[in-house]
Amino acid sequence: MKLGSFVGCMTGTSVDALDLALIDVSHPNGPESSFNEEVTVTRAHTVPLPESLRDALLACGQPDRSSVDLLGRCDRLLGEFIGESITRWLHAIDVEPTSVTAIGSHGQTVRHRPPGSVDQPFTLQIGDPNCIAELTGIDTIADFRRRDMAADGQGAPLAPAFHRVLFGKLDGHLCILNIGGISNISPFGDHHGGFDVGPGNCLMDEWYAAHHTDDGAERYDASGAWAASGNVHDALLASLLKDPYLALNPPKSTGREYFNRAWLNPHLEQTAGEIAKQDVQATLAEFTAITIADGIRKSLPDVSHVPVCGGGRLNTHLLQRLVSALHARGHDHCVVKPTEHWGIDGDAVEAAAFAWLAYRRHYLLPGNMTEATGAKGPRVLGAIYPG
Ligand SMILES: Nc1ncnc2c1ncn2[C@@H]1O[C@H](COP(=O)(O)OP(=O)(O)O)[C@@H](O)[C@H]1O
Ligand SMILES: [Mg+2]
For position 56, which CATH number holds? Predict the structure, then answer.
């Protein structure tokens, strides 16, 4: 039975682009709470964020640069940008807005302070859903994370339940890996949960923007070529690997509030002598790869396949270092490949997750996987803004 078509939209911690996905959902028994619907990602599209909006959102995400006025402005600007982008995209691909059941909008996280990091945990995503509903005429569902946090959860990660829907029928001991600004994994095994392992692209992106002098076309270290040109600095790597977040047991989640330049600086200062810029980049790549490999190994000791989504899957150096780190931990035969190897567009997975969460909300089904978020129980996530 077809249960509808849903659009998902996502701007992640990298603040690079708006990812859009259109999905079809069906289930032979109609809507039911177990995570085993049939989901097909029918179309996907990425719209780069205009420079001015990106700069404003980045400022909004930094505690010392944000204000209520900036927050309100960004909320509205991003809501309008999402609404216009969806309208333009649906027109371009010849999809009638009336054929879309609902939009699921993640919005931009401007602050994520999960339980364990502060006394009063909160998480805040912006991109006014009223504007999206007004501009598209489509029911818009947003604010997915806060109900989970109200139930004592981390509010994150929410993608593991969807990863299960999308990849759960494949053979093997799978661990889905999303390398966005932050990296999160979804192991399918005895412990099937999911958590943020630590940084993804965020540290490398920040170092690259500050120190790479060539006028490249991209804002990031394309394919990890710059990192590959440097040497890993052992003392710096050892210092980074002592970070206490890495040793925490899941459920856990993190963000750019934690893994950022201010986090890196003391490690650099403690390490004797000047380190070449490309060697820092090489060390950050190695640190990121080892952190991910350790997270995978601990949560799924018999892992056989790691489908990788998110922009970091295109960083060939990082993926090579990850394979090498997994091999060094005894996983010689583990297959690590972009999700395209399994026929799924790796830029669309996280956006599709929010389309699926919109489907769950539409039918009043829980959207959180409590093993991943640590919430007291399953909860229906998100609020509806009628089109
Ligand atoms: N060709 C590439 N080579 C290396 N890194 C890339 C490439 N393409 C994208 N990236 C990385 O992916 C990031 C965006 O990934 P994305 O999954 O959109 O993250 P987020 O969910 O945090 O927005 C970029 O900031 C960049 O670091
Ligand atoms: Mg992105």
Answer: 3.30.420.40
